[in-house]
Amino acid sequence: MKKILALVLAALMLFAFTACAETETNTTGEAAGSAYADLEIIPGVEMGVEEYAIAFRAGSDMVGKVDAISKKLFENGFIEEIAKKYEVENQLVPEFAAASGQEEAAESDWEKIEKAGKMVIGITDYAPMDYKDASGKWIGFDAEYAEKVCAELGVTAEFKVIDWNTKTVSLSEGAIDCIWNGMTVTNEITAACDVSGAYMKNYQVVVVKDASKYPDLKSLAGKKIAVEAGSAGETAAKDDANLKGNVVPVQDQATALLQVKSGAADACVIDFIMAKTLVGE
Hints:
Elements: H1 2-25, H2 29-33, E1 40-41, E2 47-57, H3 62-75, H4 78-85, H5 109-116, E3 118-123, E4 131-132, E5 138-139, H6 141-153, E6 156-161, H7 167-172, E7 178-184, H8 187-192, E8 193-195, E9 200-208, E10 225-228, H9 232-239, E11 247-250, H10 253-262, E12 267-271, H11 272-278
Parallel strand pairs: 3-6, 3-7, 10-11, 10-12
Antiparallel strand pairs: 1-9, 2-7, 2-8, 2-9, 4-5, 9-12
């Protein structure tokens, strides 16, 4: 009898564990947010307005091709449809405009991509842009956007997790064909890459455990601030007089949130789009 009870209890525990694991992995906005529901965005603190775009190698012939498809997808409502699905419709640019000032392509990246039958897309785990569902498939706004563009090109989208701090190196060395993961357009990016038209707006926010304890940036002076290495959040934190003294770069934005949740950091600076999806109201 004891053995039977033990087996039943073990089965119930396994079922509960599996259910929890699936909830944690299947990160639509609400499911993922439960893990960080105890964290808060400091109200009214917006650190720089920025834009998201797609980066290709300097001299690539892919910008014009992708921009032409993107313009069509904005006009036919596909982009708005997936934006609503992932609750980022308010961050879309009002009207997509192709990148201007691009020089004539020096090399044909398209020939390489077409021959391979796939476009290798550099990403990080960043809900709601790119993240995995319970089956392990990459989903999210950027994931669906990229898959649609690749389908229009007649190739497959292959997602490859990269070190965000060395993303332009991965691109220039040919390890990936593009960077497409809520990538903020910066002077560093435009100097190293050819960049598509912007498709989304964003800004940086500060996440803490208790916004009443840290109501503004001044209250965080001398505190430990987690940021994703190589991100716009790192730049914003280092540019702020109150935060720059103790900025700690970590692997990605999810790790930055985890640092705050665990108490290893007092705050983190991350994208508003990610924060509003994962952090409790």
